User: Which sequence fits this backbone?
């Protein structure tokens, strides 16, 4: 099968694997035990990883808290801030209708806990602009959460523009799980969010690993989710997974060094993919922003009216892709909440598929995948015509 689901998870980079392997074999100590050399060596791995992850988004080193992944980071950002928001009488939160489930799920729970949440609807291209966020702000708003890059359609959100319209004092969070490694995502370029969610396995690192950037000036306002033996500067309990951390650090460093090359390669692959598909499928619709400056180079979200993602999943057993989003994807198809929000209709949301590729994808794979998709679509259309 051809792997076209890099948005769901990326393969481990062999250079990341090498670092993890060395760490697992040789440095098994507990980083909390800084009283002997075994603990010190583990701690050194974590210190280095913290620096590498911080450098990747141009953040101060001590602002990075390691977590078990972007889902935990989002939960920590959202639930961790609630007591503070309550204490200052701010009971309203603004987010977007196109966030990942790991933001929307906590938001639903937060609503049950007495907060109100506004979900800003996107433009048809998936973008949420500054004035659209501004329109949702009330005197009670204390927190705004907007993703960096949409995981389904690849639209990049204008975070600096959004930040510029927020009244002072509002805490600004961004889920950048898909953004890092797929665009220039530094704090400076993205409106200096106060909280940023990062994931390791979207950037060729190990699964079960992520981080939350917490700006030093709001650190006192964020409560940990896990209590016990406190690590991570008192922000999280539980022994840090040294080897996962070391792998994440190495993966982040590779993003830092190789981003421009990665982006150029992905853009070329995307262009090739589209050229093949567009040449043969006249009805092809491309979901997301059309301007290369505002979309990911590694995601192609498409549909052909009349063909469901369920039909395509059945017709393409040798192509690993997602019916829009990987999370909760089943082979019985999927209605994407993102496409529904963008189009205001169920049918496009039932027809869309996400093809996502990356560092290890070859031109040959793109050409073969395009041929497989074209074949499947034409066969389905013929069957529909005959019925
Ligand atoms: N946020 C976004 C935008 C994602 O795409 C994902 C994963 O698909 C997550 C959060 C969750 O990441 P993790 O698997 O690290 O918990």
Assistant:
């Amino acid at each position: 099968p051809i792997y076209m689901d890099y948005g769901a998870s990326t393969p481990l980079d062999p250079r990341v694997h090498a670092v993890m392997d060395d760490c697992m074999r040789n440095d098994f100590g507990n980083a909390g035990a800084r009283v002997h050399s075994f603990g010190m060596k583990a701690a050194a791995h974590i210190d280095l990883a913290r620096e590498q992850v911080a450098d990747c988004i141009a953040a101060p080193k001590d602002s990075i808290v390691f977590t078990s992944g972007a889902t935990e980071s989002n939960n920590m950002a959202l639930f961790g801030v609630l007591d503070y928001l309550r204490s200052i009488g701010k009971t309203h939160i603004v987010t977007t209708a196109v966030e990942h489930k790991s933001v929307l799920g906590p938001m639903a729970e937060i609503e049950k806990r007495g907060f109100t949440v506004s979900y800003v609807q996107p433009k048809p291209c998936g973008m949420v602009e500054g004035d659209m966020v501004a329109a949702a702000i009330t005197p009670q708003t204390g927190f705004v959460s907007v993703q960096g890059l949409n995981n389904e359609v690849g639209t990049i959100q204008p975070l600096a523009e959004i930040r510029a319209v927020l009244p002072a004092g509002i805490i600004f969070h961004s889920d950048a799980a898909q953004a890092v490694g797929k665009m220039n995502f530094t704090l400076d370029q993205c409106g200096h969010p106060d909280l940023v969610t990062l994931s390791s396995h979207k950037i060729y690192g190990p699964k079960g690993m992520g981080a939350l950037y917490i700006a030093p000036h709001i650190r006192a306002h964020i409560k940990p989710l896990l209590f016990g033996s406190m690590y991570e500067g008192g922000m999280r309990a539980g022994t840090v997974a040294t080897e996962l951390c070391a792998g994440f650090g190495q993966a982040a460093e590779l993003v830092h060094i190789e981003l421009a090359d990665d982006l150029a390669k992905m853009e070329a692959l995307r262009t090739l993919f589209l050229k093949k598909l567009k040449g043969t499928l006249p009805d092809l619709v491309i979901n997301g922003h059309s301007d290369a400056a505002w979309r990911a180079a590694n995601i192609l979200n498409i549909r052909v009216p009349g063909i469901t993602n369920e039909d395509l999943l059945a017709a393409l057993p040798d192509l690993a892709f997602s019916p829009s989003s990987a999370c909760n994807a089943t082979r019985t198809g999927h209605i994407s909440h993102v496409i529904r929000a963008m189009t205001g209709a169920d049918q496009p949301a039932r027809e869309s598929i996400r093809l996502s590729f990356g560092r290890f994808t070859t031109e040959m794979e793109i050409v073969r995948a395009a041929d497989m998709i074209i074949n499947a679509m034409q066969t389905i259309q013929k069957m529909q015509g005959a019925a």
Notes: The domain at 14-253 is CATH 3.40.640.10 (Aspartate Aminotransferase; domain 2). The mean pLDDT is 96. The chain has twelve helices and 14 strands. The pocket of pyridoxal-5'-phosphate is lined by residues 69-71, 100, 102, 147, 151, 175, 177-178, 199, 201, 210, 327 (CB under 6 Å).
